[in-house]
Amino acid sequence: MVRSALEIELRKAATDLFAGDEQSAVEWLNKPAKALNGRKPVDMTGSDAELRLALDLIGRLQHGVFT
Q1: In terms of residue numbers, what domain contains 16?
Q2: Cα 26 from Cα 12, distance rounded (Å)
């Protein structure tokens, strides 16, 4: 399966969030996120707008903003 550039970008951001721990990043990407209305971050690659929401969540988590 070929991953899109959006999926690669999201996975890299999640891996950075987990200090390079790819396994933890993949687990997090595949869990529903309350901040994404119960959607899994990995499912947020259907459009640039969805990807931005997931990347914004990662950015907020990196800065300690959990809402």
Answers
A1: 5-62
A2: 10
For each successive 10 residues of the chain (67 residues), what is the average pLDDT? 76 97 98 97 91 96 85
Q: Residue 42 and residue 30: Cα distance in Å, rounded?
A: 6
> Helix crossing, 48-62 with 5-17: angle to 10°?
10
Is 67 domain-assigned?
Answer: no
pLDDT for the residue 1? 43
Q: Which residues contact 31 (CB under 8 A, 6 or more apart)?
A: 40
